[in-house]
Amino acid sequence: MSFSLYSLLILACLLVHSSYAYLSEPHPPFVITSPTQDTTIKRGETVKVSWQLTPGVQYPIYGYAAASTTQTIVGLLPPDAKRDERYVYKVDGNIKLSDQNYAWTVDEQIPIGTYRIGIGFYYHQDSAVIHIV
Q1: How many domains does the chain have?
Q2: C-alpha 56 chain-centroid distance
């Protein structure tokens, strides 16, 4: 009995280690290419958000998008956000990471300020700094 319990414990440790290693890769799975640094966007305008997968990355991208559908979230982050920080404003919860672009009409309710656009649900990649006026 103790041998099988010990085996299960080792297997669980290996799975956790493998998952952690996957999420701690040295390169992000994708990079947001637009909008570019210091883009100024007026409320009510539509901005194109684009991203590019890192060469060699394959789905599923755990922590960023749903495994079976590639659905994920886009939101606004503070300029100094970490990759697992919560969004200050959720823009859309139903985009497909596989589309590699998204047209966003900036809501009139979004406070004027400096942000980064983030894509992902647990972890996210973020854009260059943008300014909403």
Answers
A1: 1
A2: 18
Domain interval for residue 109: 27-132
> What spatial distance separates the first Cα and last Cα of the chain, rounded to whole Å?
65
Reference 128, options 26, 33, 42; nearest CA is 33
DSSP state of 10: H
Q: In order along the chain (133 residues), what is the average pLDDT of each group of 10 residues?
A: 66 51 66 97 97 87 85 95 92 93 95 96 92 98
Q: What is the pTM of this model?
A: 0.78
Block residue for tokens 């414990």: 9
Please state, in angstroms and rounded to a whole number, the distance separating the CA atoms of residues 63 and 124. Answer: 8
Classify strands 39-41 and 130-132 as parallel, antiparallel or unpaired: parallel
Q: Which tokens sit at 52?
A: 């590019």
CATH number where 65 lies = 2.60.40
How do the residues of the chain divide into helix, strand and coil, expressed in percent and rounded to 5? 20, 35, 45
> Measuring CA to CA, which residue among 111, 109, 115, 110 is closest to residue 131?
115
Task: For residue 20, tell me if it sits in a domain.
Answer: no
Q: Is residue 79 part of a domain?
A: yes
